[in-house]
């Protein structure tokens, strides 16, 4: 009796919930994507920590290379790392996934944020943006610190 009387209402509620929720669920990555992007970010940061700036850029996404010349990249990072000293500690505090990024083509992006401590500066916020590069897998597309 209940199902006959309210069945259409229940079906409409379920359909409405699906219409509302499906777009949000679409941007949810599977955990494997997050793991691969996180691995790429840590490999990149290891190169930066070892002052291997050229190799870090070489292994980065095409988008990273388009936005920064090799000489500009190396000079900028060398200057910043000289002013900070060696990394003492780095803690990952946030991970987010998106299919779009500001001033960038649509695609798959994972943004990782770290609270870091360096020899010459106690509190540094580092952000690594990793994107799914068509032919090369997850690669770093951006690196920012403040």
Describe how the helices and strands are arranged.
Blueprint: H1 2-26, H2 31-49, H3 53-58, H4 62-67, H5 70-84, E1 87-98, E2 109-118, E3 124-133, E4 137-145
Antiparallel strand pairs: 1-2, 2-3, 3-4
Concise description?
It is built from five helices and four strands. The protein is an alpha+beta fold and 146 residues long. 49% of the residues lie in helices and 28% in strands.
Write a structural description.
This protein is α+β, with helices and mostly antiparallel strands and 146 residues long. It has a single domain (29-145), classed as Roll (Nuclear Transport Factor 2, Chain: A). The chain is built from 5 helices and 4 strands; from the N terminus they run H-H-H-H-H-E-E-E-E. The chain has helices at residues 2-26, 31-49, 53-58, 62-67, 70-84, and strands spanning 87-98, 109-118, 124-133, 137-145. The chain has a 4-stranded antiparallel sheet with strand order 1-2-3-4. The protein starts with a helix and ends with a strand.
